[in-house]
Q: What sequence folds into this?
């Protein structure tokens, strides 16, 4: 994000910015007025000065014609976490708009829509994925002690706040990530052989099509082949995918990770870890996809367990997989490990 920063004192200090989002989305009025900033096309106010309980946080946001943020896209979570780190706001946890409904106990956003559970938004602590079962922890925050993944807190706790300008919620729905996936998001087409595709491409690499031919399925608009039968090392996995006119998946969107993990769970394919197309073999510590583009680091794609965030394997672990031992977050593995794989259809 390109930031033009300024500080203003109005009953306290706030950081305000005119920030271009990563994917060049625009807000409805193209400008977020102080104290809001444009993050991923949404007008947000990341307030790390005041600390208050969850109900007070909602009232605080209402004073700015807003509400606690409906953080319903994993891509938005990635951009918020980037902003928090870049602005040096890492010393606080932050309330967001999710809470457990009084009647069902399910976590919902302020508009009543369901909060999507699991990877990649919810963190892992002590090898257990949040939310925890604590009866008094019914409000959601980004947990500073676990790399700003979602966590459930006691609603009376006093922490910082992320507000969203209210009109931004009108006529908008999430395509993936931290809200429930829309129906018809995954199509499985069975055919006798790979026949190809007649869809359009994005950036000359990802095949986007209305029909993905066997063995590929449509997940988040991408033709993917989740193969949990064969197990092989990373190089062999690339060769295997090449035999289907593909390569290991370039999993370059957190929303796509959410949909892949949901597909793996629904199809009962959770007993394996899966190779994807990232590695740092060319230069240690510089993680890239097979097309040479950079792998985005940190939350919400790379796994963490309270102490350290992946990758942690150093020069011995240079290839990226979805780790079934850690809820299918990214992890670095030795490239010679025999694992299952996810191919993506390429031109």
A:
């Amino acid at each position: 994000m390109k930031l033009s920063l300024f500080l203003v004192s109005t009953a306290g200090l706030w950081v305000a910015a005119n920030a271009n989002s990563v994917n060049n989305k625009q807000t409805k009025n193209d400008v977020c007025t102080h104290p809001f900033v444009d993050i991923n096309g949404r007008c947000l106010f990341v307030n790390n000065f005041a600390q208050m309980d969850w109900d007070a946080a909602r009232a605080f946001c209402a004073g700015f014609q807003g509400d606690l943020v409906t953080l319903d896209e994993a891509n938005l979570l990635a951009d918020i976490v980037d902003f928090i780190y870049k602005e040096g706001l890492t010393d606080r946890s932050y309330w967001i708009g999710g809470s457990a409904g009084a009647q069902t106990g399910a976590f919902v956003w302020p508009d009543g829509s369901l909060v999507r559970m699991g990877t990649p938004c919810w963190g892992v602590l002590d090898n257990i994925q949040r939310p925890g079962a604590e009866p008094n922890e019914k409000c959601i925050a980004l947990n500073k002690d676990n790399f700003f993944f979602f966590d459930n807190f006691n609603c009376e706790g006093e922490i910082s706040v992320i507000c969203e300008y209210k009109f931004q919620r009108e006529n908008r729905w999430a395509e993936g990530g931290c809200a429930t996936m829309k129906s018809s998001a995954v199509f499985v087409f069975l055919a006798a052989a790979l026949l190809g595709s007649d869809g359009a491409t994005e950036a000359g690499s990802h095949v986007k099509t209305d029909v993905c031919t066997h063995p590929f399925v449509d997940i988040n608009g991408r033709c993917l082949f989740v193969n949990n039968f064969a197990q092989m090392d990373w190089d062999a996995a690339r060769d295997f995918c090449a035999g289907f006119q593909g390569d290991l998946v370039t999993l370059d969107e957190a929303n796509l990770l959410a949909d892949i993990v949901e597909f793996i769970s629904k199809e009962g394919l959770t007993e394996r870890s899966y190779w994807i197309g990232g590695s740092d073999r060319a230069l240690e510590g510089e993680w890239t996809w097979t097309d040479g583009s950079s792998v985005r680091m940190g939350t919400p794609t790379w796994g963490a367990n309270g102490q350290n965030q992946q990758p942690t394997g150093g020069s011995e672990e240079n290839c990226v997989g979805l780790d079934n031992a850690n809820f299918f977050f990214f992890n670095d593995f030795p490239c010679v490990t025999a694992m299952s794989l996810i191919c993506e259809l390429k031109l």
